[in-house]
Design goal:
ADP-ribosylation fold, 2 domains, single chain, alpha+beta, 6 helices
């Protein structure tokens, strides 16, 4: 005897998640969305825009994607949705400054190490550098682009030296940049 409907198809869940990431973080105008100053958009407006651009999904699918996303990339509040961080479009996430733990971590890949050694960590096309509170998360982030390399960030010293940190709703630590002097590379002492 079945208990309720079957779980949504995992491939569909991934497709909806990627669609949300693209349009809530990088290109809302592509489907006619306008994010407010803090990155929010009404859910009904998002659903209508997606349907009008030939990618319809239901509120139940949206709620499922938000609930099961392993990185909790999206926040829902008062009938609105936004990406928790990672925007390349102009938004102010309105996150208060926070005191980071002594060390944070950043996942990358070996081909990027020379540039990081000389320039440090930069936000690239995003608003901030993303850091993890644990090594495992940083390793998973780095693994998206190949064999991961995890860097340790002396966040305590960086903060004491005046760099501002914020933490997103899903626990990602954000800062404007990390100069090379605050980084520890694998194998370095």
């Amino acid at each position: 005897m079945r208990e309720g409907p079957p779980a949504p198809d995992e491939r569909r869940t991934v497709k909806v998640s990627k669609y949300l990431s693209k349009h809530l973080r990088h290109d809302p105008g592509r489907i006619g969305l306008t994010l407010d100053a803090h990155g929010w958009v009404e859910i009904d407006v998002l659903l209508a825009a997606a349907a009008a651009h030939r990618f319809p999904f239901s509120r139940a699918e949206l709620d499922h994607v938000v609930a099961v996303n392993d990185k909790q990339r999206f926040a829902v509040e008062n009938g609105r949705i936004r990406a928790s961080q990672g925007h390349s479009v102009a938004v102010d996430l309105d996150l208060p400054p926070a005191t980071p733990p002594a060390y944070l971590f950043h996942g990358t890949v070996a081909p990027r190490l020379d540039a990081i050694r000389s320039e440090g960590l930069r936000p690239m096309n995003r608003h901030a550098v993303h850091l993890s509170a644990d090594r495992g998360t940083a390793e998973r982030v780095g693994a998206r682009r190949g064999r991961p390399v995890v860097l340790s960030v002396d966040a305590g010293a960086l903060h004491r030296d005046g760099h501002v940190f914020r933490i997103s709703a899903n626990g990602v630590w954000l800062t404007a940049a990390v100069p090379p002097a605050y980084l520890r590379f694998p194998g370095a002492r």
